[in-house]
# Entry
Amino acid sequence: KAGVTQTPRYLIKTRGQQVTLSCSPISGHRSVSWYQQTPGQGLQFLFEYFSETQRNKGNFPGRFSGRQFSNSRSEMNVSTLELGDSALYLCASSFRGTNTEAFFGQGTRLTVV
Amino acid sequence: GIQVEQSPPDLILQEGANSTLRCNFSDSVNNLQWFHQNPWGQLINLFYIPSGTKQNGRLSATTVATERYSLLYISSSQTTDSGVYFCAVEWANSGGSNYKLTFGKGTLLTVNP
# Structure
């Protein structure tokens, strides 16, 4: 059974650009969540999607957005990149998003220069 | 929201030693997971343990939900156990869910040969 797949693994972008990250959950899982990890702030929740609906959003500016497709794959977008957006972005997959085990992908390491 | 505190923040051991990592949380939870973050950043699932005790080889975990803490035991530690260990909880939020995991700041474990 394939795990959670995130693409790309590494990205280097320039300030002001935008970026799109992709996450394919484990087959049969309908919940996808996104987290940002930085040395200063640790692991912080970005948003959660279930059956194409965003059920919760973390405390991030509107430059951070996401969506989920009918096949449960999810993308997150960051527009007008800032240096502080440099981070490891992790995607988690679970069957229903609550009372169930979550599994993480390998992450996308974004560097903004 | 819920608060998650992990202790100790850093732990240095000699190979073969045993250790106990602690996770305290401030409210009722639907879910509690322990993760090990590998050098490449991926979060590896260790235990899904909202309550009770589980064992997997040299690792075991206990969650006492009524007292709002969980313990991760590592016995006969090996150098490959080095890394950061995270506790993450899903807040029960008045009997419902906010569909996200809240992470502690982690314990950095270093096992020396």
Notes: Chain A touches chain B through 27 residues (CB under 8 Å). DSSP finds no helices and eleven strands in chain A. The two ends of chain A are 37 Å apart (CA to CA).
